[in-house]
Specification:
199 residues, alpha+beta, 8 strands
């Protein structure tokens, strides 16, 4: 699978996003698109939305991109940043219980790092993932790596939790903002809810 992930810093017109996806979903290989809206900015460098568009193969994605360029149509910026998953975890028990996509917490963390720091950060994420897997309310986590090493964000991570309270419980009353303060210029952590999805 290949994912187009866009970290959208300004307010957008959601109908424009839907119109762009309506055009993309006609192409072979389109799987789904999700638009997530930030409701809480945790550190200084926040954003407003995250758009994730999934394609079954890189070839189908590139064919769609080629067709768009041929017709010179504008499809927002939803073809711009390509990622693939390099690490993940699912809590099958929570998934089987049923998840309300509109109310679950999505913790999103784009990483501004160089290739030099990639391995260290991937190891840190893996340790964090193993810790989260044992917590009540954890649903799933994904670590995405950009296909372009020069992209603004080398990694984007997302963790889904049943509620914000369940996520915060793992820090046992510690100030989460203070925990992440040393990484202020590296991570842009926000809390989001899923606004809409197109399959």
């Amino acid at each position: 699978m290949l994912y187009n992930i866009d970290i959208i810093k300004d307010e957008i017109v959601v109908t424009n996003w839907k119109n762009a996806i309506d055009k993309q979903c006609k192409f072979t290989g389109f799987k789904e698109a999700k638009l997530q809206k930030v409701y809480k900015k945790i550190n200084i460098d926040g954003y407003a939305y995250v758009s994730i568009v999934a394609w079954d193969t890189a070839d189908n994605y590139h064919n769609a991109l080629h067709e768009v360029k041929k017709t010179q149509e504008q499809h927002c910026t939803l073809f711009s940043n390509s990622f693939f998953i390099i690490n993940s975890a699912d809590n099958q028990k929570e998934i089987e219980r049923g998840v309300d996509d509109k109310t679950k917490l999505i913790v999103t963390n784009p990483y501004r790092i160089s290739t030099v720091d990639a391995e260290k950060n991937a190891e840190m994420w893996d340790i964090s993932k193993k810790h989260m897997q044992n917590q009540d309310g954890f649903i799933r986590a994904r670590l995405y790596q950009c296909t372009d090493a020069k992209g603004e964000y080398y990694f984007v991570s997302q963790a889904e939790w049943r509620t914000e309270e369940m996520f915060m419980k793992q820090f046992e009353g510690k100030d989460f903002k203070q925990i992440i303060k040393p990484f202020e210029k590296v991570f842009s952590i926000c809390f989001l809810h899923e606004l809409t999805r197109i399959d």
